[in-house]
Amino acid sequence: MNIFTAHWELKVVAIVLAAALWIYTSGQVRSERSVDVQLRPNLVTGLGDTYQITSITPIEFRVTLSVPSSRSEELQPQVLTPRLEIRANALGSRSQTFPITSSTLGLTNDVRILRTEPESLREIVVKWDSIIEYDMPVEMPELINVPPGMTADVKLDRTIVRVRAANDVIDRRQKVRFQPIDLGVISDPKAMVGEEQRIILRKVSGLPYNVEQDLGATVVLKPLPASMVVPAVPVQVLMAREDIGRYRVELVPAVVNLTVHGPENLLKTLKPASDITAYVDLRGASDLNVARDLPVSILGPAWLTSDLVTVQPKLEAVPPDVPLPPESSRPEIAPPEPQA
């Protein structure tokens, strides 16, 4: 008798029992694994277009799982992102509770939850509310990468924009924020001074509401105002032609410190010795030897202004017996147009 065919019924039963025992014992060998669970609004389904998530509690937690050794290779992700389905009959209540179970987390039934962190956590609570549209004021965006010596005027196309969100998440006391306006993208700032530039403000991500309207703005670059002190500037005298040589003039003081103002970038290139002339206007002066304060005017670039400075001129008539220089040789100062 062939040993392979003898008592074949018993051998088949033995093979079946061995396979069943292997399957059973392999399922009993388990290992523990800890994974994070993260919940996000986009993982919640069933709300449609008329509702929006207002809160998910908790938004993140940790679970320790008991996993059969035969399935340990299948459970690869270190973070679980389960999907939560809102029941249609729960929409009116605006809240639904999900027990923390293997099926809720999208796991198979043979994967067991041993514990959670925090330990008292037993359920997930999702809340939502009806979506509304609301007009909110706009916060003026910040300017960044402003060119040196420059500033900018910003005019928004509108100061109110429409937002769309769940009723509970709209804070009517706040303003809508946009990303800063980046002036570093301007290749030649000096050439763009005074020119209007159109931009579209960029929306801030992560806001609890959607901004339904694009918002434009007009940006105009302008020089940044600055000041500087020019020390020891000699003061010249401006007189009528017929008075030249007839008076001796003494100024107190004869030199002054001038505080001048203008665009910062232009002030840095100013050369006071050649670009600025200070003078006092004595044309038509008739009071001799009378001390009085007269303002000092300046000749310089059209953009330059100065603070008020005064001097006291004293005029002394030249005696008639002193010969006057020929008229052709008398120094003249052409009457300037005062700039300040």
In a nutshell, what does this entry contain?
The chain is rod-shaped, with a radius of gyration of 44 Å. The chain has three domains: 122 residues, no CATH class; 86 residues, RNA Polymerase Alpha Subunit, Chain A, domain 2; 105 residues, Beta Complex (RNA Polymerase Alpha Subunit, Chain A, domain 2).
List the helices and strands and how they pair.
Elements: H1 8-28, E1 30-38, E2 44-45, E3 51-57, E4 60-68, E5 79-80, E6 84-85, E7 95-99, E8 112-117, E9 123-137, E10 143-144, E11 150-156, E12 160-166, E13 181-182, E14 196-200, E15 210-211, E16 216-223, E17 225-238, E18 247-252, E19 255-263, H2 264-267, H3 272-275, E20 277-281, E21 294-295, E22 297-299, E23 305-306, E24 310-317
Parallel strand pairs: 1-5, 2-6, 10-13, 17-20
Antiparallel strand pairs: 1-4, 3-9, 4-8, 7-9, 9-12, 11-16, 12-15, 14-16, 17-19, 18-24, 19-23, 20-22, 21-24
Key descriptive features of the protein:
340 residues, mainly beta, RNA Polymerase Alpha Subunit, Chain A, domain 2, 41% strand
Would you give an account of this structure?
The chain is mainly β. The chain has 3 domains: 8-129, no CATH class; 138-223, RNA Polymerase Alpha Subunit, Chain A, domain 2; 225-329, RNA Polymerase Alpha Subunit, Chain A, domain 2 (Beta Complex). The chain has 3 helices and 24 strands. The chain has helices at residues 8-28, 264-267, 272-275; strands at residues 30-38, 44-45, 51-57, 60-68, 79-80, 84-85, 95-99, 112-117, 123-137, 143-144, 150-156, 160-166, 181-182, 196-200, 210-211, 216-223, 225-238, 247-252, 255-263, 277-281, 294-295, 297-299, 305-306, 310-317. The N and C termini lie far apart (131 Å).
